[in-house]
Write a structure and sequence with these properties.
Layout: E1 2-6, H1 13-27, E2 33-36, H2 46-49, H3 64-69, E3 78-80, H4 88-92, E4 98-101, E5 104-106, E6 110-115, E7 118-123, H5 146-149, H6 155-161, E8 170-173, H7 186-192, H8 197-201, H9 208-217, E9 221-224, E10 231-236, E11 248-253, E12 265-268, E13 279-281, H10 283-291, H11 321-330, H12 365-374, H13 379-389, E14 431-434, E15 466-467, H14 475-478, H15 500-504, E16 520-523, H16 524-529, H17 531-537
Parallel strand pairs: 1-2, 2-3, 3-5, 7-8, 8-9, 9-11, 12-15
Antiparallel strand pairs: 1-12, 4-5, 6-7, 6-13, 10-11, 14-16
Keywords: Hydrolase, Iron, Manganese, Metal-binding, mRNA processing, Nucleus, Zinc
Domain Lariat debranching enzyme C-terminal: 235-380
Cofactor: Zn(2+); Fe(2+); Mn(2+)
Length: 538
């Protein structure tokens, strides 16, 4: 079947679906499924806009609300994960996944589903070491800290995914797995995004949690977004035994939604021709959720997942074939996900704007039904209980607070040996350097693998964006965002989620007084949301 893959949508659903229609008219290609790798921005109303971690001037309604209200319907089944520019209050209603609009499905904090026999998994958010070991404690109305921590990946989601044993066909993450750039054309990547050089050379660009999942799951395809540049790689995995067949992952990072351009990629994926056309639950994933339900945590305290270190009575939560069989029997072997989308908030009305609408913490009926069916803990219900009990565990702040340092308090040692300075260039909510960005013509490029990891995968570049299994990537596409991402600053001087390590790190030449002579510092999310400038550029 044909699968369309998109990068950061940023709420521009009309443009995304119009691109699919254009693709069908020009190339007679109609995808059976659309995947979006985060920054989807399922914004229903003005209250949702207040829950997006972007400066106020970049909070635009875009077009999702038309699909939420029923005015429009997605022309193709769409499955997406969350990024770091989302209406977090809306997505938080569906921690285990669910429909955000008819024919548009969110995978939740982490999730696995099936479509036509193809197994699709994903994890939402971006990695931040100081929030990684916390529970999902945030709820609206958010303060200056929780509006950001709400979209940070948690170790419990990674732990759940690592319990999977059956093969994964497709996996999605918003930020890239750390080190994946060593398996593709690294030279070309640094020409397009020269300010990545420090993190690439120190091997700190990307998410260590996603890298851990890549090594464990070994999916056939891995799709990401976040960095607003197209990049292909091929990773040959090491085998654990002589009997194990070698596995490889085809990685592709997608650019953001660009007006008047074909930013989508189409790939051919083997599927079960006898399978139905409905989106289905994955029996092993449901069994894992049931097995790990006791680990659900809604506190701010840091904690580690069970591991074989002598401190835990149980550390293996992978499920048996018998447990999977029990799930199938509970569902009468009917894994079809019910089309039970429900409106849980007022929809934006252009004729009656409500700029003072406040976000509220909502229990979504879809989540209630899902938890009741499988005997799971409703995370939002647990948070509500904690608030009512006044225990302070998972309690939400209703008053705005001054923005805290990104660590909040003295950070305990992370499971990953990493400092946050290495994450600064790939998190759009942090500062970035305004660099020159390769205007060279790279129309004839091929994969330039790392000497240490010579892949057997050859990537060709062409102007056609209909991708077969070879995962071809167009070099001119990859150049789309080289300079248009790097607009000059002049906006907010606010520095968000910046650790002491980041503040002390000198990334540009400076005199004795610390004054920069040439390069400017700017906020990446200014570039992300500067739609008018992009239109002019295009």
């Amino acid at each position: 079947m044909k699968v369309a893959v998109a990068g950061c949508c940023h709420g521009a659903l009309d443009k995304m679906y119009e691109t699919l229609e254009l693709l069908q008219r020009r190339h007679n290609v109609r995808p059976d499924l659309l995947l979006c790798c985060g920054d989807f921005q399922a914004v229903r109303n003005e209250a949702d806009l207040r829950c997006m971690a972007v400066p106020a001037k970049y909070r635009h309604m875009q077009t999702f609300y038309r699909y939420y209200s029923g005015e429009k319907k997605a022309p193709v089944l769409t499955v997406f994960i969350g990024g770091n520019h989302e209406a977090s209050n809306h997505l938080q209603e569906l921690p285990y996944g669910g429909w955000v609009a008819p024919n548009i499905y969110y995978l939740g904090y982490a999730g696995v589903v099936r479509f036509r026999g193809v197994r699709i998994g994903g994890i939402s958010g971006i990695f931040k070491s100081h929030d990684y070991r916390k529970g999902h404690f945030e709820c609206p109305p958010y303060n200056q800290q929780t509006i950001r921590s709400a979209y940070h990946v948690r170790n419990i989601e990674v732990f759940k995914l690592k319990q999977l044993k059956r093969p994964i066909d497709i996996f999605m993450s918003h930020d890239w797995p750390r080190s994946i750039y060593h398996y593709g054309n690294k030279k070309q990547l640094l020409k397009m995004k020269s300010f990545f050089r420090q993190e690439v050379e120190s091997n700190t660009l990307g998410s260590p949690a996603a890298s851990e999942l890549l090594q464990h799951l070994k999916p056939t395809y891995w799709f990401s977004a976040h960095l607003h540049v197209k990049f292909a790689a091929f990773m040959q995995h090491e085998t654990n035994s002589k009997e194990e067949l070698p596995k490889a992952t085809k990685f592709l990072a997608l650019d953001k939604c660009l007006p008047h351009r074909d930013f989508l990629q189409i790939i051919d994926v083997e599927h079960d021709p006898n399978a139905g056309d409905s989106l289905e639950y994955d029996a092993e994933w449901i069994a894992v959720l049931k097995a790990t339900n006791s680990l659900v945590n809604v506190t701010q305290g840091t904690w580690n997942m069970p591991e074989k270190n002598g401190l835990h009575a149980k550390w293996d939560y992978s499920v048996t074939e018998e447990a999977i069989k029990e799930v199938l029997e509970e569902m009468n072997h009917d894994l079809k996900i019910p089309c039970n989308f429900t409106l849980t908030a007022a929809c934006y009305d252009p004729s009656k704007p409500q700029k003072n609408m406040e976000p509220v913490h909502t229990i979504n009926p879809q989540t209630t039904e899902f938890c009741a069916q499988f005997g799971l803990t409703d995370i939002n219900d647990r948070i509500q209980q904690a608030k009512e009990e006044g225990s302070g565990r998972g309690e939400c702040e209703e008053e705005e607070e001054e923005e805290m340092d990104s660590t909040g308090s003295a950070e305990e040692p992370s499971e990953y040996n990493t400092d946050n300075s290495g994450l600064s260039s790939f998190n759009p909510d942090e500062i970035m350097l305004d660099e020159e960005g390769g205007d060279e013509d790279l129309s004839t490029c091929s994969v330039d693998p790392s000497p240490d990891h010579p892949p057997e995968f050859s990537t060709s570049f062409s102007d056609i964006r209909i991708m077969p299994d070879s995962m071809a990537v167009s070099s001119d596409d990859a150049m789309d965002s080289n300079n248009e991402d790097l607009e000059k600053s002049g906006g907010s001087k606010e520095v968000e989620e910046k650790s002491p390590t980041e503040r002390s790190l000198k990334r540009i030449g400076a005199d004795e007084n610390g004054n920069s002579a040439v390069k400017k510092i700017k906020r990446r999310n200014q570039a992300i949301y500067a739609a008018e400038d992009e239109d002019k550029t295009d």
